[in-house]
Amino acid sequence: MSLRHFTDLSAVSEGDLRFMLDDAVVRKARLKSGERTKPLEGKVLAMIFDKPSTRTRVSFDVGMRQLGGETIMLTGTEMQLGRSETIADTAKVLSRYVDAIMIRTTSHERLMELTENATIPVINGLTDDTHPCQLMADIMTFEEHRGPVAGKTIAWTGDGNNVLHSLLEASARFRFNLNVAVPEGSEPAQKHVDWSKAHGGKLYFTRSPEEAVDQADCVVTDCWVSMGQEHRARGHNVFSPYQVNAKLMAHAKPDALFMHCLPAHRGEEVTDEVIDGPHSVVFDEAENRLHAQKAVLAWCLGA
Ligand code: CP
Ligand code: NVA
């Protein structure tokens, strides 16, 4: 089997992504029924965090344990990486010790340098550019609640950030319509838009959150300032029209879902009324990180 990295949805085939989602559903059901298997017994996942995390950190750790494997938690600053050992050398050394690496880091180039120099699978646990594991959980969550996502309409409102970039890739890979409303100056990177369109993504861009959300099956948002992006923080008045509140949700289908990768900044990108309300599936998304990532780990490690 050739080396399987999970760096981006655009880097993994549609068939493999669908295989992982189906596998995630089975693994979740098995766990709930009390069935325990240990396909990754004896395997070790190194996790490198250059940024904070709650969900990614805990779900990968617990996921590995549920599969019978173990984890080592590393932070960039505690490693020689923080004293200027190169990413490439770090990749080569870790490849001699562990079976896979999950990294949450800053620039996407760091992830790619690690991937190019590792002889074991590398998983993207978020970069400044993308967050593919989040989208696996999100699509799984959508389909749990509403059936196949293909042909459905998802609306994004807010900042054009890493989660939106992976959502753009997901729209092509999973064949749903994606409406995007972001303020001027917060547009997603053109390369993700181009990739999505070139691979069949049906995208619609507008400045109007009401128009984006109109008759949508699902409304998604995220923080207005991502980790490490504080330098490009913009006044809240720029983003406030893009807040997901009850008035905005009323434009979506009556049974529309509300999604947010969390952590949420309540009162900013979403109101309590929406995130705690009947449309919201944010904690299902968080839970499904665990199961989707077990499927990613099993796929990467051939288990
Ligand atoms: N959604 C997500 O990745 O959460 P964490 O930053 O807590 O890992
Ligand atoms: N866009 C957010 C996602 C956090 C999970 C960030 O990068 O901070």
UniProtKB/TrEMBL annotation:
<keyword id="KW-0963">Cytoplasm</keyword>
<feature type="binding site">
    <location>
        <position position="222"/>
    </location>
    <ligand>
        <name>L-ornithine</name>
    </ligand>
</feature>
<comment type="pathway">
    <text>Amino-acid biosynthesis; L-arginine biosynthesis; L-arginine from L-ornithine and carbamoyl phosphate: step 1/3.</text>
</comment>
<dbReference type="InterPro" id="IPR006132">
    <property type="entry name" value="Asp/Orn_carbamoyltranf_P-bd"/>
</dbReference>
<dbReference type="InterPro" id="IPR002292">
    <property type="entry name" value="Orn/put_carbamltrans"/>
</dbReference>
<dbReference type="GO" id="GO:0004585">
    <property type="term" value="F:ornithine carbamoyltransferase activity"/>
</dbReference>
<protein>
    <recommendedName>
        <fullName>Ornithine carbamoyltransferase</fullName>
        <ecNumber>2.1.3.3</ecNumber>
    </recommendedName>
</protein>
<feature type="binding site">
    <location>
        <position position="289"/>
    </location>
    <ligand>
        <name>carbamoyl phosphate</name>
    </ligand>
</feature>
<dbReference type="Pfam" id="PF00185">
    <property type="entry name" value="OTCace"/>
</dbReference>
<feature type="binding site">
    <location>
        <position position="80"/>
    </location>
    <ligand>
        <name>carbamoyl phosphate</name>
    </ligand>
</feature>
<feature type="domain" description="Aspartate/ornithine carbamoyltransferase Asp/Orn-binding">
    <location>
        <begin position="151"/>
        <end position="300"/>
    </location>
</feature>
<dbReference type="Pfam" id="PF02729">
    <property type="entry name" value="OTCace_N"/>
</dbReference>
<feature type="binding site">
    <location>
        <begin position="226"/>
        <end position="227"/>
    </location>
    <ligand>
        <name>L-ornithine</name>
    </ligand>
</feature>
<dbReference type="InterPro" id="IPR024904">
    <property type="entry name" value="OTCase_ArgI"/>
</dbReference>
<feature type="domain" description="Aspartate/ornithine carbamoyltransferase carbamoyl-P binding">
    <location>
        <begin position="4"/>
        <end position="144"/>
    </location>
</feature>
<dbReference type="InterPro" id="IPR006130">
    <property type="entry name" value="Asp/Orn_carbamoylTrfase"/>
</dbReference>
<keyword id="KW-0808">Transferase</keyword>
<dbReference type="InterPro" id="IPR036901">
    <property type="entry name" value="Asp/Orn_carbamoylTrfase_sf"/>
</dbReference>
<feature type="binding site">
    <location>
        <position position="162"/>
    </location>
    <ligand>
        <name>L-ornithine</name>
    </ligand>
</feature>
<feature type="binding site">
    <location>
        <position position="104"/>
    </location>
    <ligand>
        <name>carbamoyl phosphate</name>
    </ligand>
</feature>
<dbReference type="InterPro" id="IPR006131">
    <property type="entry name" value="Asp_carbamoyltransf_Asp/Orn-bd"/>
</dbReference>
<feature type="binding site">
    <location>
        <begin position="131"/>
        <end position="134"/>
    </location>
    <ligand>
        <name>carbamoyl phosphate</name>
    </ligand>
</feature>
<comment type="function">
    <text>Reversibly catalyzes the transfer of the carbamoyl group from carbamoyl phosphate (CP) to the N(epsilon) atom of ornithine (ORN) to produce L-citrulline.</text>
</comment>
<feature type="binding site">
    <location>
        <begin position="261"/>
        <end position="262"/>
    </location>
    <ligand>
        <name>carbamoyl phosphate</name>
    </ligand>
</feature>
<feature type="binding site">
    <location>
        <begin position="53"/>
        <end position="56"/>
    </location>
    <ligand>
        <name>carbamoyl phosphate</name>
    </ligand>
</feature>
<comment type="similarity">
    <text>Belongs to the aspartate/ornithine carbamoyltransferase superfamily. OTCase family.</text>
</comment>
